[in-house]
Amino acid sequence: MDKNNEIIVFGGGCFWCMEAVFKMIKGVISVEPGYAGGNKDNPNYQDVSLGLTGHAEVIKIEYKAQIISFENILTVFFATHDPTTKNRQGNDIGTQYRSIILYTSEEQKKQAEKFIITINNSNEKGAPVVTEIKTLDIFYTAENYHKNYYENNKSQPYCQVVINPKLKKVQEKFANLLKNNE
Fold first, then answer.
1. Which architecture does CATH list for 5-181?
2. pLDDT for 65-85, tens place per residue?
3. What HAMAP family does UniProt report for this protein, alphabetically (predicted)?
4. Which pTM value belongs to this model?
């Protein structure tokens, strides 16, 4: 990793969706699916999926802060999942699908907390954000077949029904933040 780059880890449902979204964002160097936030060493997909580890499906994002701000990264994160449902994203239910930010610096923590306060204050009638914020202790890389899942499986029903609409939304809402618009 370049010393000028930053790392943030997000969980917001299925890591296949999140990986596909953040790979489109300019300033993002890499996106890696994995597991974090739990209490079992060296978890695997089967154990995480069954909710036996305390880990969430997450993505580790390496990005250039001089190209994309952490605030913009947070904006995309919160706009591409429902941070107001505890342990659930759509049909994915369980702690492994919770909304979580695992920060790598105190500045990220402060910005994330402030961002959530702003969201909660912007709509008094809306449900409050339940996103967990905690320091990244350890990140476990997911099995190889999860990496670049969308790119390698675009014709799969899950990609067609769940990921494609999400990517279209990102392309429409965040055109100014996309790599192809740099």
1. 2-Layer Sandwich (3.30)
2. 999 999 999 999 999 999 999
3. MsrA (MF_01401)
4. 0.94
